[in-house]
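Q: What would this complex look like in 3D?
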Amino acid sequence: MRMSELSRRSGVPVATIKYYLREGLLPPGERTSRTQARYDESHVERLALVRALVESAGLSLARTRQVLAAVDTPQSMVDLLAGVTEASCDDVGGRGRARALVDRLGWSEVPESGDAMGRLEEALAALEVAGLELPDGQLDRVGALMGEVAALEVDGIPADDPAAAARYVLVGTALVAPVLQALREVGHVHHSVRRFGAGAAVATDPGQ
Amino acid sequence: MRMSELSRRSGVPVATIKYYLREGLLPPGERTSRTQARYDESHVERLALVRALVESAGLSLARTRQVLAAVDTPQSMVDLLAGVTEASCDDVGGRGRARALVDRLGWSEVPESGDAMGRLEEALAALEVAGLELPDGQLDRVGALMGEVAALEVDGIPADDPAAAARYVLVGTALVAPVLQALREVGHVHHSVRRFGAGAAVATDPGQ
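A: Here is my prediction, written as structure tokens for the whole assembly.
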């Protein structure tokens, strides 16, 4: 199909498609003349994916490019999930908080390297900086619950279709995150109504 | 203290402090001359909070301003958690997916309005756009788990100190989110090693 039909089918404006082509988020079509190219179903699918990552999940262009590269490159499921890349392997120092937590959770197979462990360490350090450290007990219970969420997701990975599996994992990790965060926030409302009552007034004026 | 000492105490460069002052993220000090002002402990604390929100939690300036305004303004705990603002109340249409899920979870006290329900609806719609809709059963189990996380957090809210409570809730909601997401990703690694083995090769070349 031509670009105009690709635009109609995908609902993405022609100017945006051209931008994605320039940025390398969409592979070029098959050239049919000096000024025209032909696109196929794979382009329609890829556009839906790019759109979801950029517009819905709010990923940066750089992060979207990483996710797409990972989808397109053969690697082991575990490396894929761990985000183990050369770039992330040089810094494995200073992950004491993350390691201690992961060990308490009994997740001892998790390698020290990898983006996920680095992000966990950073996130725990940020809580400390803000003076909001969680007690170990609460952190462990929250960790166990997030482990159950992760287990449900890993169980859902299709084992017989590696390409579908990679897509499921990478896109799911990015797009399910906002669902979980929103569920947590709605859960806050639900539980605070139960604990404090619907009209519970809180004077939060720090001047008092 | 002078700005130079505020900078030393907080570890935030003078230029950045001036920027936060201009943007209204930090209240002005008490003017002592035409060119100087005095700052106190409240400025040190506020700077730590701004830094955590902007640098660690990665909130935008606009969102940081909202969180700080909410911390500084008396409102009920439930409104605080729901993010019920005038701006968010005009659009309560088209939240069918979120409402259905929240009803299945038995969270019937949660009002239709509010930012959290809006974000849940958007996040569920984004999954659908990407062709990654979760089956109701899985969504319900994940929702129940996130509800348990939220319950733990609401239980931890200090009931006797409203200002501390507001800070805990708002800052916690922003700063704990990256911890949960990182725990989920590390959990993916743990459970995929268990399911697929450490070396499980996945050929994800979509050209095959």
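A: To summarize the key features: Chain B touches chain A through 106 residues (CB under 8 Å). Confidence is low (pLDDT under 50) at residues 84-92, 201-208 of chain B.
Q: Very helpful, thank you.
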